Amino acid sequence: MTGKAQKQSQPSERYGLRAMGILRIGAIAVLTTVSVPLCAQATGSTAPAPARSWVSAAVRPALAQVGETVGQVNVQRWKVRRNVRQVVNGDIESIQQDLSGTLAGLLEKADAAPGSIPAAFAVYRNVDALYDTLLRVVETADFAAPRDEAEELVTTLNRLESA
User: Fold this and answer.
1) How far is it, in rounded angstroms, from Cα 22 to Cα 4?
2) Helices vs. strands in the chain: H and E counts, helices first
3) How far, in Å, are 10, 34, 129 from residue 22 at the CA level?
4) pTM exceeding 0.70
5) What is the pLDDT of residues 11-61, one digit of tens each?
């Protein structure tokens, strides 16, 4: 065999000893990362289960602010046509009903199953729809409501978005 053929057959020279060491360290790190949580699950954790799901914990404060802010809105003071007031009032009623009805039930289901992706996704979809409705109210308030009400609605919308 020629010297060139011998070099191609030796992996340590082709990849280098350093690269092989890095690959081994990487494999050990991956196995450790995966196996440690699995071992903890198998032995059973003594930590108490969270009372609320992470979704509920993230969203409930913002939803409380939405309910409070929307409850204080006085659409009758807005400088807008009667039919627009009726639409905004309908949106506000829809938000309040959702907060106390559908969304409250979805949050209870998410709390009952903290690791459930479908339960978390159902909350997400409902909050997304609530956000769209609140956005319509905020956009109308931006040009028709007194400044303090409009600013409070914008702050509430931003908090819901960040949650």
Assistant:
1) 26
2) 8, 0
3) 18, 18, 49
4) no
5) 444 334 443 343 344 333 333 333 334 344 444 444 444 456 678 788 999
Distance spanning both ends of the chain, measured CA to CA: 68
Helices within 44-81 (DSSP H only): 54-72
SS3 11: helix
Q: How far apart are CA 116 and CA 83, in angstroms?
A: 42
CA distances from 47 to 5, 41, 42, 82, 111 (A): 59, 11, 14, 56, 17
Cα gap 94→71, rounded to integer Å: 12
Q: Is 50 helix (H, G, I), strand (E, B) or coil?
A: coil
Task: Tell me the residue type at 81.
Answer: R
Residue with tokens 């702050």: 155
Q: State pLDDT tens for residues 102-149.
A: 999 999 999 898 888 999 999 999 999 999 999 999 999 999 999 999
Nearest to 137 by CA among 80, 64, 61, 99: 80
C-alpha distances (whole Å) from 41 to each of 36, 46, 50, 90 are 9, 10, 16, 49
